[in-house]
Every structure is written in structure tokens, then in C-alpha cells.
Amino acid sequence: MPLDRPLSLVTGASAGIGAAFARALAARGHDLVLVARRADRLHALAIQLRAAHGTAVHVRPLDLADPSAPQRLCAALAAEGLAVDWLVNNAGYGVPGTFEASAWEVHAAFLQVLLTAPTELAWRLLPGMRARGYGRIVNVASLAGHVPGSAGHTLYAASKAYLIKFSQSLALENRAHGVHVCALCPGFTWSEFHDVTGTRALVGKLPRFLWQRAETVVDEGVAAVERGQIVHVTGRANRAIKALAKLIPDRLGLWLSARQSRRYRQLD
Ligand SMILES: NC(=O)c1ccc[n+]([C@@H]2O[C@H](COP(=O)([O-])OP(=O)(O)OC[C@H]3O[C@@H](n4cnc5c(N)ncnc54)[C@H](OP(=O)(O)O)[C@@H]3O)[C@@H](O)[C@H]2O)c1
Questions:
Q1: Which residues does UniProt assign to the signal peptide (predicted)?
Q2: What are the residue boundaries of the structural domains of the chain, listed by start?
Q3: Which partner for 148 in 48, 179, 182, 253 could form a disulfide, CB atoms 3.0-4.6 Å apart?
Q4: Domain 7-111+134-264 bears CATH identifier 3.40.50.300
Q5: Comparing C-alpha atoms, which of 3, 11, 20, 14 is closest to residue 218?
Q6: Mean pLDDT, the chain, as a whole number?
Q7: Which tens digits make up the pLDDT trace of 232-244?
């Protein structure tokens, strides 16, 4: 690593995969900017990481559904002379139910958090990375972006497929400038995700071998972006599912997706 203490910005650092990224990067000697809405969680994590690793932690409580949040965050960091070397676009959630069951405002906020905020953060932070000849961008996508869309959680797979394609283009444009971009694609991961979406009971019926720990996902993600891998699906079972989804005809894929949707998705 070319820098003594890289500065990593992690969104969604108050829980799950984002908190695990913060812990893993602090252990690797990074300083941190932590972003999420729950300030108390971010401050508690910051105290732990300062004590454990001597990490400089900048806590930035923000709602990424606010369209002005990425610009305000980047302007504040620049004003403090903080240059971001690693961007982990991780904040996310799901909206259960069918498309018409939620108000437009719910979908608009989802698109802002899952698509626009990560895209804008990359756009704002990339020039500094390129100028310094070093940068890492991890876009936390999902296995859902590789398999056919489901009924219910209508925008989720679409948003993750976008992140995968966006990461591929960004990686190709920037790899000659020392900036690695990786779409990290976990499958089912132990975190607060399914509690927030209210689907814990439904996904609790899935076999245990499909589940990964957030720490495992993060270890794979850090290794993948470091070696310059552009898309990384975590875990053997998830890689097998992705490979199968590519092999089978679309009609069979959609039939399977409809069957799984009835079992594991909230459809009202
Ligand atoms: N868990 C899985 O099975 C799974 C599988 C594949 C991909 N993923 C992806 O992994 C990422 C992390 O999810 P997770 O599993 O770690 O879920 P999680 O435990 O629920 O954590 C989600 C994080 O996103 C933050 N967040 C949500 N809305 C936000 C907003 N409006 N503004 C700022 N921060 C916001 C939350 O913080 P606050 O509530 O404090 O704002 C929290 O820190 C997501 O992008 C998710 O789609 C998860």
C-alpha cells in the first residue's frame, strides 16, 4: 500500500457490512470517515476503533436520502483538508412489497440512497484519487444483481445490477490511474438488513450454508479490490448460483425467480 495511513470513507458504517468494513480497514491502519444516520452508533464505533488501533475517526451523521448530502459531505471534508483514498459505498436497504404498494417518495429515497449517492460520491472523490495516483472504490452490490429480478423488492435487484455495470465502466476508465474499482456482491449475510426490511422470518427459512458473516464478506471484498478484481461474488455457494444463472435459459431463470419470490419475498 503506497500510503502510510489511507483515509477510508465508509457509508452505512453504523451496522452490518459497513461496520465490519470500518473495523477491518482500521485494523489495516486506515483512518476513517464514518457515515450513516445513527450518530450514537457511529460515535460508539469510533471510540472502539480509536482505542483498539489509534485510528483517527471522523464521524459524519448524514441521511443519504437527502440529495444534498454527498455534496455537503465532500465539501466539508475538503474544507478540513481530508483526502479520501478508499470509498466504500455500502449504505443500503430493501423495500418489501410490490412496486405499486409503496408511495413514490419511498422509491425516490431508495434510488437516492442506493444509486445516486454512491454515484455522486464516486464522481466527487475520484478526481483527487486520480491526481494522487491511488484510490480504491468498493461498491457494495449483491448477488441479486446477477440473477433475474424477483417479484417484491422491485427496485433492489435493478439497483444492484446498475452498481455492477457502473463499477465495471469506472474500473476500466481508471485502472491506468492507480484507482481500483470493485463491485462486491454478497449473498445472504448476517446483519440488520432483514430486520430493517421486516423479512427476517421469511429468509430465516433459507438453508444455513447460504449465509455468510459480514466479516467474511469484507475480508473477501478488501482482498478483491486490492488485487484489482472488478466484480467479486462472495462465497462458493453464491458463485455457483451466479454461474448457474448465466447458464440456464431466461425463461427458466424467471420461473425459478417467481417460485422463490412466492416463498421468500413479501408480496403485499
Ligand atoms: N445482508 C445481506 O444479506 C446483503 C446481501 C447482499 C448485499 N447487501 C448490501 O450490503 C449493504 C449493507 O447492508 P447490511 O446487510 O450491512 O445491512 P444493515 O446491517 O441494515 O446496514 C445498513 C447500513 O446502511 C445505512 N443506511 C441505510 N439507509 C441510510 C440512509 N438513508 N442514509 C445513510 N445511511 C443509511 C444504515 O445506517 P443508519 O440506519 O444508521 O442510517 C446501516 O449502517 C447494502 O447495500 C445491502 O444492499 C446485503
A1: none
A2: 7-111+134-264
A3: 253
A4: no
A5: 20
A6: 95
A7: 999 999 999 999 9
